[in-house]
Specification:
Blueprint (H helix, E strand, L loop, with lengths): L2 H4 L8 E5 L5 E5 L1 H12 L4 E10 L4 E10 L2 E10 L12 H18 L60 H14 L3 H12 L8 H12 L1
Antiparallel strand pairs: 1-2, 3-4, 4-5
Helix pairs in contact: 4-6
Length: about 220
C-alpha cells in the first residue's frame, strides 16, 4: 500500500463543487478520480462489492452498503442517492442509475478511510466542506476513556444500527441545534468537534448523516 500516494492532495482541476446543506458549497472528488487513485496506490489490485442495497420510500432515496478491499484491508461504508423521477408523473426514470450513484458514493466514502481526499476536511470552520456524503462511526469514543454511544436515549434521536429509513439521510436542523447546545454546555469548540467527527464518522459536524448525528449526541451525553 502506497500511503503517501493515497493521502496525496488532489489538484484544483480534480476538485468539483456542488451546493450542500445549510447553503454551503461542498468540495468533492469524482468517482473516476478516486478509482484512478486506488489503481495507482494498489497497482489495480483492489476490489469493491455491494453487500446490501435498499430503496427507502420514506425519503425517496436508495441506500447501498459497499465494501472496499485491498489485500487484508477492508473498509465498509454506506452510500446513498436520491431517486430521479419525471416531473409530470413522478415515475422513476432509471433506478439502476440511482443505484450506481449510491455505489459510487459508498466507494468514495470507503476510500476516505484510506486517506483519499481527506485534505478536503482540513479547512477552517467557516469553510468546512466535504466529499459527497458521510460515513459510519468506527467505534472510537469521545475520548480514550469513553466507549462509543450505542443509540440510547438522546432526547428523541434514536439509532439502533438497524437498516431502515430512520438511519439514513442528512443531519436534521433539530439535531444540529441540539448538538450545538450540548457543545456549549460542555465547553467544546466547533474545531474540536469537527476533528472528532472526521476521526469517527469521516465528515465534519454540518454534514453528518442522521444516524451519525444520533451517535454523536449519545457520545456527548455519555
Amino acid at each position: 500500500m502506497n500511503r503517501e500516494l493515497l493521502e496525496k492532495e488532489f489538484g484544483p482541476e480534480q476538485i468539483k463543487q456542488r451546493e450542500g446543506n445549510f447553503g454551503k458549497t461542498l468540495d468533492y472528488i469524482e468517482g473516476h478520480s478516486v478509482i484512478q487513485r486506488l489503481n495507482d496506490a494498489f497497482d489495480a489490485d483492489w476490489s469493491f462489492v455491494i453487500i446490501k442495497h435498499e430503496i427507502i420510500k420514506e425519503t425517496d432515496e436508495v441506500i447501498v452498503l459497499g465494501e472496499l478491499g485491498a489485500g487484508t484491508i477492508k473498509k465498509t461504508q454506506f452510500g446513498s442517492s436520491r431517486i430521479t423521477r419525471t416531473r409530470n408523473t413522478g415515475d422513476m426514470l432509471g433506478l439502476a442509475d440511482d443505484l450506481k450513484s449510491a455505489a459510487t458514493d459508498s466507494l468514495k466514502k470507503c476510500a476516505t478511510m484510506l486517506g483519499i481526499g481527506l485534505h478536503l476536511y482540513n479547512k477552517d470552520d467557516e469553510n468546512n466542506q466535504r466529499p459527497n456524503g458521510g460515513n459510519q462511526p468506527n467505534g472510537q469514543g469521545w475520548n480514550n476513556n469513553q466507549s462509543s454511544g450505542n443509540g440510547g436515549n438522546d432526547n428523541g434521536y434514536q439509532h439502533n444500527g438497524n437498516w431502515n429509513g430512520n438511519s439514513n439521510g442528512r443531519i436534521t436542523a433539530k439535531q444540529h441545534s441540539f448538538i450545538q447546545s450540548l457543545l456549549k454546555n460542555k465547553g467544546i469548540t466547533k474545531s474540536e468537534v469537527n476533528k472528532k467527527c472526521v476521526d469517527m464518522y469521516g465528515s465534519v459536524l454540518d454534514y453528518l448523516s442522521r444516524a451519525d448525528a444520533s451517535n454523536l449526541i449519545a457520545e456527548l451525553q455519555s
